[in-house]
Design goal:
Elements (H helix, E strand, L loop, with lengths): L3 E6 L2 H11 L7 E5 L2 E4 L7 E6 L12 E3 L6 H10 L3 E2 L4 E3 L2 E7 L5 E6 L11
Length: 127
């Protein structure tokens, strides 16, 4: 099974530049490029990020977004790095159920969260 997350954007090249730099700690290389698509392939088991060129800019709140754990407890430093790449901070640090996160947006306004899970995170599957 493979998971691909598709992100609509007006400028796929500019967005690829931002997301390649943002995801550099996770080693995402460029993959398939055939307009209107440009993919950034995550190392297994990470999902592929598929950038899809669309004519209209983002409007309203995302119905789905990325939550990124860069493996650091210093969320502010990570968000500062992303801001230097063109991201915009949308919230202060938030906390719930031991998770800490900061909401940011990429250069086209797509929201995502930089988060730190609690010390012990065990994901349980329910069927």
């Amino acid at each position: 099974m493979q998971i691909v997350v598709t992100l609509d954007c007006v400028d796929t090249e500019a967005q690829a530049g931002f997301w390649l730099a943002a995801l550099a700690p996770l080693d995402y290389p460029r993959g398939f490029h055939g307009p209107p698509y440009l993919s950034l392939v995550g190392p297994a088991p990470a999902p592929t990020l598929l950038l899809q060129r669309v004519p209209e800019p983002k409007q309203g709140k995302n119905r789905m977004h990325l939550d990124l754990d860069f493996g650091t407890a210093d969320l502010a430093s990570e968000v500062n790095r992303l801001e230097r790449l063109g991201a915009v901070r949308l919230s202060e640090e938030l906390e719930e159920h031991g998770y800490r996160w900061i909401v940011v947006a990429d250069p086209e306004g797509n929201e995502f969260c930089v988060f730190k899970p609690p010390h012990s995170t065990k994901v349980e599957r329910t069927n």
